[in-house]
From TrEMBL:
Source organism: Paractinoplanes atraurantiacus
Xref: Gene3D superfamilies: 1.10.530.10
Protein name listed in UniProt: DUF2272 domain-containing protein
Highest taxon, organism lineage: Bacteria
InterPro entries, A to Z: DUF2272, Phage_lysozyme2
Annotated Low complexity bias: 477-490
Domain Phage tail lysozyme: 530-688
Length: 720
């Protein structure tokens, strides 16, 4: 591959500068570096046209693969280039293989020349603008290094003069250049050093801690996180917030601590936790939202609106604190500007930042960004992050949670919100819970910070009837929740006024308990709800009889738990995490799952993927090239349940007509439908390797018939 044949792996980025990746086979600047192509990988998040983009250059470490190291396969997944909410361009150059005593050594001689880092950044921006048309300009320069990449960092940090530096267990060599740089940048830069005690990086890291005054943005901390996992564990958090308090770390020097940030205007300073941190955060989120509601009603009078002069300082505060974007009064009082710059997600970002969410929240001027992040936390079982997105019918909203809906006819759902398409959404903060309703506060509601009362069901979950039909997600701010649980008593939050001049309401009774049922695992509510959704699609859209659909869906329950993202060998709670060809268990991206290559050892070791655990190469290829509703989702089909159901129906009607005919027979029973799918469509290993009369085969048939009956019951519970 040559530079002229660089591969753009996210072609939609050309149109919209949406998140994407560019792989460059050969780069003249790095021609002296010995090794295997590609020479360069670029990764970016959403970048508006003409934006200033922060450029993050990552210097990778040694590799046991030696000269055969491949950036995409071996270094990008552990680079920590998990780009934050503001526009960013990640730059991953391939180092020069020199081997050394370990036989694994890489260095970066081409970047040691004067001006070489600047030239690399300019070339990266040129290529990025060329394939996206974004017209972006350079913002801040951020250098990150892992392991042996720290030696190159020490060689170039002085001349490159970055704005921020993050060293991930990387200080094996004299850190004097980093110390000198940090002293120069103390007023406006950021430096975070993470190391493992007892490693070869410890002494130099502790020296930096002694010689560089500790502040919120300049810290040296030790961790027990495995060496190769450190960039992935902390890179994204630091790129989002250089002052983030990181989980699982301790100060390099005992007794040192970063100074606390000043309290936010109009709110009391945060107190030491008096309860579980997640609960404290949730209550603080609601507190901030209520305070902002009052802030827009000076003296308890009429509400300000966005283009009033008195609203300008408030909105400037939201943009500056929430998403780090400066705006002027002239812009804020311009109807054309306000018309294309809705600030509701900016408000949510401000609330979260002020409440102390730190690097856990994906701050953004677009709701979709943080909804996606919270959904990834839930699907990836990221228990260290309190923001988990659930389907609207899975959990009851609690104080401090976010309730999210599609708007402007965008069609956003829990299942499609993770794909590459931009969908208009809106979220509000839950601030009060009463019998049969919840109070929510949001930004840019009627051109102010407004409130709404939403109707809830008897079990405390949000109603999706009538005007609330577009709500699709609840973002828990307390981490994992048991699906189907009701809200706690509303006394968890103090009563608040319902509006200017309205007295406090009566004491709020507790929400009634969820509908009783037989004991079941926590995931049961999830799988039943998913099964019912697929049943609805099969019966209503594709006209399958109910029994035929139940037999089919029961098999999906057995295969994947009806989780569209699930890959073979994963758990329901971590559906994209499984063993790779190298024996390591990791979380795979949709692109890595799609591009699985057993000959090259890329992607998950086991091939099964999606609702039906499609396994063979041609069936997997069919899934990722399937066209649904006039579009081809590609790798994003892993988060698109309706598109996978459409592929399933298409495959049945085209390649398994005899099976499809049985499923569509009006007289078919659940058991007959289940059996035909097991024996002629799914053909699990026990069936493939046995005979119909074998006890093991009969046991599997019985098991899947049971799933079919569960699918039928789940569907019927939602019918009148």
């Amino acid at each position: 591959m040559t530079a002229s044949t660089a591969v753009l792996e996210h072609r939609e980025a050309r149109r919209q500068a949406m998140p994407g990746r560019l792989v460059v086979g050969q780069l003249p600047l790095l021609a002296r570096h010995v090794g295997s192509p590609p020479d360069l990988v670029l990764r970016w998040n959403r970048v508006p046209a003409g934006a200033r983009v922060d450029v993050v250059v990552h210097l990778h470490g040694f590799s046991a693969r030696g000269r055969g190291m491949n950036l995409v396969r071996d270094k990008l997944p552990i680079s920590g280039l998990d780009l934050g909410g503001r526009p960013m361009l990640g730059v991953l150059p391939r180092g020069h293989f020199f081997g050394g005593r370990s036989g694994h050594g890489f260095s970066f001689p081409a970047l040691r020349r004067r001006g070489a880092v600047a030239a690399l950044v300019d070339e990266a921006l040129r290529r990025f603008n060329g394939v996206t048309g974004a017209g972006a300009t350079r913002g801040r320069l951020i250098l990150t290094a892992h392991s042996g990449g720290g030696a190159a960092l020490m060689q170039i940090v002085g001349e490159a003069d970055p704005d921020q530096v993050y060293a991930f267990d990387a200080l094996y060599t004299d850190p004097a250049p980093l110390i000198a740089w940090a002293r120069r940048k103390a007023g406006n830069g950021a430096m975070r050093v993470i190391f493992r005690a007892g490693e070869g990086t410890a002494a130099n890291s502790q020296r930096v801690a002694r010689e560089v005054p500790r502040t919120a943005r300049f810290r040296v901390e030790r961790t027990t996180t495995p060496h190769n996992d450190i960039p992935g564990a902390y890179g994204g958090r630091l790129l989002t917030d250089p002052a983030a308090d990181l989980p699982g770390v301790a100060p390099a020097i005992a007794g040192s601590a970063a100074p606390a940030p000043p309290p936010s205007r109009g709110l009391p300073a945060a107190q030491p936790p008096s309860g579980p941190p997640a609960t404290q955060l949730s209550e603080r989120i609601a507190q901030v939202a209520r305070a902002e509601f009052r802030r827009w009603r000076p003296g308890g009078g009429a509400a300000l609106t966005e283009m009033m002069p008195a609203a300008g300082p408030i909105l400037r505060d939201y943009y500056r604190v929430g998403v780090g974007v400066p705006v002027t009064d002239a812009q804020l009082q311009n109807p054309a500007y306000q018309g294309v710059h809705p600030w509701s997600a900016v408000f949510i970002s401000y609330v979260m930042r002020t409440a102390g969410a730190g690097a856990h929240f994906a701050y953004s001027p677009a709701h979709q960004t943080y909804i996606r992040a919270a959904r990834r936390n839930r699907l990836g079982n990221v228990t260290g992050n309190p923001f988990w997105a659930y389907r609207v019918d899975e959990v009851a909203p609690r104080i401090g949670d976010l309730v999210c809906n599609a708007r402007a006819g965008s069609g956003a759902t829990y299942d499609n919100i993770g794909d590459a398409q931009t969908r208009s959404t809106h979220c509000d903060v839950v601030t009060e819970i009463q019998q049969g309703r919840v109070r929510v506060i949001g930004g840019n509601v009627g051109q102010t910070v407004g409130e709404k009362w939403l109707t809830t069901r008897p079990d405390g979950r949000l109603s999706t009837a009538g005007r609330q039909s577009t709500f699709f997600a609840i973002i828990s701010t307390r981490g994992p929740r048991t699906a189907g649980t009701a809200a706690p008593p509303a006394s968890a939050a103090p009563p608040t006024p319902h509006g200017p001049g309205v007295p406090y309401g009566p004491p709020t009774p507790a929400a009634p308990p969820a509908t009783a049922g037989p004991p079941a695992p926590a995931a049961l509510g999830d799988v039943n709800a998913r099964a019912a959704r697929v049943m609805e699609l099969l019966v209503q859209r594709y006209r399958y009889p109910v029994a035929g659909a139940a037999g089919l869906v029961g098999n999906l329950m057995a295969e994947s738990g009806v989780i569209p993202e699930r890959i073979e060998g994963s758990a329901e709670t971590t559906p994209t995490r499984a063993q790779g060809f190298d024996g390591q268990v990791r979380t795979f991206t949709p692109e890595q799952i799609r591009d699985r290559d057993s000959k090259r050892g890329l992607g998950p070791k086991l091939p099964g993927v999606g609702l039906a655990q499609w396994t063979s190469a041609n069936r997997r290829a069919g899934l990722f090239t399937h066209t649904f509703d006039g579009r081809r989702p590609g790798a994003a089909i892993l988060s698109d349940l309706p598109a996978q159901v459409d592929y399933l129906v298409t495959e049945l009607g085209r390649d398994y007509r005899a099976v499809d005919a049985v499923l569509r027979s009006p007289a078919v029973t659940v058991e007959q439908a289940s059996d035909i799918v097991v024996l002629r469509f799914e053909v699990p290993a026990v069936v493939f390797n046995g005979k119909p009369g074998d006890p093991a085969v009969q046991q599997e048939l019985a098991r899947r018939r049971g799933f079919g009956q569960r699918a039928l019951a789940a569907y019927q519970r939602g019918r009148p």
